[in-house]
Amino acid sequence: MILYTSMPEELIFQPDEKVFQNRMTLQVGGCSLLVEKTTEAQFRVVQVLSSDPSHYLMEAYTPGQILSNLS
């Protein structure tokens, strides 16, 4: 079987469901981000999910960055 997708392999074939329980997609400033909830009010950026190349150049959306105050 050959599967062509832009999604990471870990999202399709999840090895352990517990790893992904805190992950979700958020819209921040018009950009879709895959984030991991670290605390009630903070999220860590895992991946940018956008077709706009300028979103990949924004330092605030770099994987590993912490987002807070998203109200």
Question: How do the helices and strands line up, and which of them pair or pack?
Answer:
Layout: H1 9-12, E1 23-28, E2 31-37, E3 42-48, E4 66-68
Antiparallel strand pairs: 1-2, 2-3, 3-4
Number of helices: 1
Mean pLDDT: 88
How many β-strands, per DSSP?
A: 4
Q: What order do the SSEs take from the amino end to the carboxyl end, as H and E?
A: HEEEE
Using the alpha-carbon principal axes, give the shape: flat
Radius of gyration (CA) equals 13 Å
Question: Low-confidence spans: pLDDT under 50, at least 5 residues?
Answer: none
- Major β-sheet profile: 4 strands, antiparallel
What fraction, in percent, of the residue positions are helical? under 10%
Q: Which structural class matches the secondary elements?
A: mainly beta
**Per DSSP, what share of the residues sits in E-state strands of 2 or more residues?**
25-35%
Q: State the end-to-end CA separation.
A: 43 Å
Provide the spatial order of strands within the biggest beta sheet.
Answer: 1-2-3-4
Can you walk through the features of this model?
This protein has 71 residues and is mainly β. The model has no long low-confidence stretch (mean pLDDT 88). The chain is 6% helix and 32% strand. The chain is flat. The protein has a domain at 21-67. The N and C termini lie far apart (43 Å). It has a four-stranded antiparallel β-sheet, with no helix packed on it.
